[in-house]
Structure formats: C-alpha cells, structure tokens
Design brief:
mainly alpha, Multidrug-efflux Transporter Regulator, Chain: A, Domain 2, globular, about 55% helix, single chain, 3-stranded antiparallel β-sheet, about 10% strand, about 120 residues, 5 helices
C-alpha cells in the first residue's frame, strides 16, 4: 500500500502536452492499475488512446487525478462521494488544484525569464 502523501509531496507537473500512464502514476502517487480503475469510475478522466491502446493523459487529466486522489486519500471520500463531489464542482477549481496551477505558472515564467535573459 502507498504511504499517505499530500499534494505538497507530489512533484510539479512538467510543461509537457501529453503524459504516459507511467508518468502520471509517478506525478500523482498512484499505481497504473488504480488509474485504469479510476477511468472506469470517473467519466471526467478521458486519456487519449493511440496505437496499441496506449493512454496519453493531458495536463487537465493529471490535475483531475490529483484532485480525485486528494478526495479519496486525504479527505476520506468514497468513490461514489468523490464522483458526486466532482460532478457538482466541475466548474469550480479545488484550492489545491489552484495552488498547483499557480506553482506551475511560476516555474514556467521563471523558465521563460531565463530564456529571455540569454
């Protein structure tokens, strides 16, 4: 079983467009089989499937998976409760998700600043 971690312990999401299931597993702190299960339980998770049925997740998928992980592991929601919470809050961003977006933007802006200084 995984050790409990918080969003603060998770790595920053790199500035890529697509992520493999292994990368998402590392970024979100859950095993690949859990991600595949969550795809069945949460219709909001829709990775692109390419040749050989390989999954490619986008940034919003990774952030949604982190939110689901937080609801289940940190806040004690059941799958049904988390599904209900997400369907009722699709328009609103979770506080931890907002912090992640801000942190990611700061890192990307710092990278742009370094490039511009060259």
């Amino acid at each position: 079983m995984l050790e409990p971690t918080t969003d603060k312990d998770l790595p920053v999401i790199p500035g890529k467009r697509y992520f493999t299931i292994g990368e998402v597993s590392d970024l979100c702190g859950v095993k690949p089989h859990v991600l595949r299960y969550w795809e069945q339980e949460f219709p909001q998770i829709e990775p692109l499937k390419r040749r050989g049925n390989r999954r490619y997740y986008q940034r919003q998928d990774v952030m949604l998976i982190r939110q689901i992980r937080s609801l289940l592991y940190e806040h004690g929601f059941t799958i049904g409760g988390a599904r209900q919470r997400l369907s009722g809050e699709e328009a609103k961003l979770d506080i931890s998700q907002s912090r992640q977006i801000i942190r990611q933007l700061c890192l990307e802006l710092e990278e742009v600043l370094v490039i511009l200084k060259r």
